[in-house]
Amino acid sequence: MSKDGREGILVVECACGILMRGTVDELVPIVQKHAFESHNMKVTREDVLSRARPDA
């Protein structure tokens, strides 16, 4: 783990401006829930990971 504790943390920023972050296992369901509840969209794990970037 990095000294600031952020290793393995990814970030996804939705087009609506919401910023979501977490490990892969945390982030995928967060983004899926947001996409469905806020935008009536179903996204796959692969969709989430394709938009994810490492947290700076």
In short:
With 56 residues, this protein is α+β, with helices and mostly antiparallel strands. The chain contains 2 helices and 3 strands.
How are the strands of the biggest sheet laid out side by side? 2-1-3
- Average pLDDT reading: 91
Task: Give the structural class.
Answer: alpha+beta
Give the count of helical stretches.
2
Largest sheet: 3 strands, antiparallel
Radius of gyration: 11 Å
Tell me, briefly, the overall form. Answer: globular
Number of strands: 3
Overall number of domains: 1
Question: What amount of the residues lies in strands?
Answer: 15-25%
List the helices and strands and how they pair.
Elements: E1 10-13, E2 19-22, H1 24-39, H2 45-51, E3 53-54
Antiparallel strand pairs: 1-2, 1-3
What does this structure look like?
This protein is an alpha+beta fold and 56 residues long. It has one domain. 41% of the residues lie in helices and 18% in strands. The chain contains 2 helices and 3 strands, in the order E-E-H-H-E. Strands 2-1-3 form a 3-stranded antiparallel sheet, with helices on one face. The chain is globular, with a radius of gyration of 11 Å.
Which terms summarize this structure?
2 helices, about 40% helix, 3-stranded antiparallel sheet, alpha+beta, about 55 residues
